[in-house]
Design a protein that fits this description.
Blueprint: E1 3-10, E2 14-21, E3 30-35, E4 38-44, H1 50-54, E5 63-67, E6 79-83, E7 89-90, H2 93-96, H3 116-126, H4 131-143, E8 145-148, H5 154-169, E9 176-179, E10 187-189, E11 200-203, H6 210-216, H7 219-229, E12 233-243, E13 266-271, E14 282-285, H8 310-324, E15 328-331, E16 338-342, E17 347-349, E18 366-376, E19 392-393, E20 398-399
Parallel strand pairs: 12-20
Antiparallel strand pairs: 1-2, 2-5, 3-4, 3-6, 6-7, 8-16, 9-10, 9-11, 11-12, 12-18, 13-16, 13-18, 14-15, 14-17, 19-20
Bound molecules: 2-oxoglutaric acid and fe (ii) ion (FE2).
């Protein structure tokens, strides 16, 4: 039997490709997905793909997609797809060619692949993406961020700011802050008013407040992120900043972990007031998401693989910027503006200076903002391996929190 086929994508989360035999044009193969010697599932090659139809491969309906089940770890280099009832296997391209590198080690999302512009065209023709995000996606792929002006209206912002005030005065059960107050050591504690204007972040307020969820799931951001992920976005970690973080330039992929695919990540930064210069604006290196990956322990994008390399990692971002000509820019947002950053955009909080004089821990100028990290609905943040708190699925966004259930 002359089988023709290919594994086009295999990144540990998704395996895509097509398979077909000329002699049996109506037969649709069932594939056994083998990771080493273990079978992790099956799929049928009967899905339609326009590029296959255009290439005259059957009627185009011989593609497959296999979503690796959550918590199953699949090494892309060792995946083999067995045609059920035969000894014929499909292998990843590099393996088939005898190459040593696994394809798509950090494959990321479709926007991270070299053929993203073709994929965009195909999605646009299919009606899966309309004009508005198509234009934004171009800038996102080029620059590593986009700005959505006025994404949240003034009335919603006022309600969010009131919700924050309430949370400081009378914290809901289970709400936590992360703070370096009062002693410079890291603490996770219930909100304590004295720490509000210090080195403090309020965590996952959306788990407790519908208005905060409404602001996070604003239409422009959800529309855009749905295009980025190719599915409903999942919000899973948010930080409320009363004042500038002054955090060093970093990439979130080192700390914010998505199970199996470190780059299936994006974040939104929502201004809850007009941001004034020198109050610690968000800053970033334009285009830095495309720099070569820094590998902790020579293998991982996650810092935990080699914590000692952290200073080198931070330094490498400035070196990359110099080597590749990444401009340093700051986001002087107006209330309601949202900036979306790519998983690997180098960003941080600029220094607080000027305006208010030398700020002490309790005398910083305000810079009210809400950061939310997202993945796609079919992905899980790594922490879900150890936590099962109830999530809340709304039509435009799924919400899940590390610290407790998301209650309606
Ligand atoms: O808002 C900032 O200053 C930076 C926040 C940030 O980097 C993050 O939350 O990932
Ligand atoms: Fe960050």
């Amino acid at each position: 039997m002359a089988v023709r086929g290919s594994i086009d994508l295999c990144d540990g989360n998704v395996i895509e490709g097509w398979v077909y035999a000329d002699e049996t044009p109506l037969h649709r193969f069932t594939l056994q997905v083998m990771a080493g010697d273990a079978e992790v599932g099956t799929c049928v090659a009967n899905r339609y793909r326009e590029d296959l139809a255009n290439a005259g491969i059957s009627n185009g309906d011989v593609a497959f997609r296999f979503d690796v089940p959550p918590f199953v770890s699949v090494d892309p280099a060792r995946v083999r797809l067995r045609l059920v009832g035969s000894d014929v296997y499909l292998l990843p391209r590099e393996a088939a060619a005898g190459g040593a590198t696994a394809p798509g080690r950090f494959a990321g999302l479709w926007i991270d692949r070299p053929d993203w512009i073709d994929a965009l065209g195909a999605k646009h023709r299919r009606g899966a993406i309309d004009d508005a995000p198509a234009g934004l996606l171009f800038r996102f792929v080029r620059d590593g961020y986009v700005v959505l002006r006025g994404a949240v209206d003034a009335a919603t912002l006022a309600m969010v700011n009131a919700a924050v005030d309430r949370a400081w005065k009378k914290p809901p059960e289970g709400l936590l802050i992360e703070t370096f107050e009062p002693d410079g050591a890291l603490h996770y504690v219930p909100p304590e008013a004295a720490f509000r204007y210090g080195r403090t972040k309020m965590l996952d307020l959306y788990a407790h407040d519908a208005v905060v969820r409404q602001a996070i799931a604003n239409g422009p951001a959800m529309h855009f992120l749905a295009a980025v992920f190719g599915e409903t976005p999942k919000a899973f970690q948010s930080l409320y900043f009363e004042t500038g973080s002054q955090q060093a330039m970093h990439k979130d992929t080192a700390y914010v972990k998505i199970d199996g695919n470190p780059l299936a990540l994006a974040a939104t930064w929502l201004a809850l007031e007009d941001i004034k210069p020198h109050t610690g604006e968000l800053e970033y290196y334009v285009g830095s998401h495309r720099a070569p990956a820094f590998l902790f322990g020579g293998a991982s994008k996650w810092m935990e693989a080699e914590p000692d390399a952290h200073p080198r990692f931070l330094e490498s971002l400035h070196q990359d910027a110099a080597a590749h000509g990444h401009r340093r820019e700051a986001f002087l947002a107006l209330a309601g503006d949202v900036l979306v950053w790519h998983a690997d955009l180098a960003h941080g909080g600029s220094a607080i200076s000027g305006a208010m004089g030398e700020p002490g821990a309790n005398a910083r100028p305000s810079r009210r903002s809400l950061v939310t990290h997202f993945t796609g609905a079919s992905f899980q943040p790594f922490y879900r391996r150890a936590s099962t708190h109830a999530e809340l699925a709304t039509p435009s966004c799924v919400f899940v929190s590390q610290y407790g259930p998301v209650a309606d």
